[in-house]
Amino acid sequence: MSDTPKVPDPSFFERTNTLINVANDQCSGVSADQVSHSFTNASTRFNVWLWSITSKDVEDLKARREQALDLLLQETHDAFARHFEEYVANYDAYVNANR
Asked: What is the pLDDT of residue 67?
């Protein structure tokens, strides 16, 4: 949402790690690719729900569609770029150590 803080609250990383652990657990039954698609779908659906409950009515929700989409895409882009660079910098520790 537009009021998303730039500095995470103290439990931000705890929530993030909890969700990643759920995704990791799901990888025992199917491919990581399948889990990734499910995780993305769930996150997207949750975000649409959030925009829905913070809208005054359905017309307000419809009017804010592009704002919501732009914000979600920007936040996803920024997070992906940040994590991608972290994995590049720590490839041996993050990937090769677990092979």
From this structure: 97
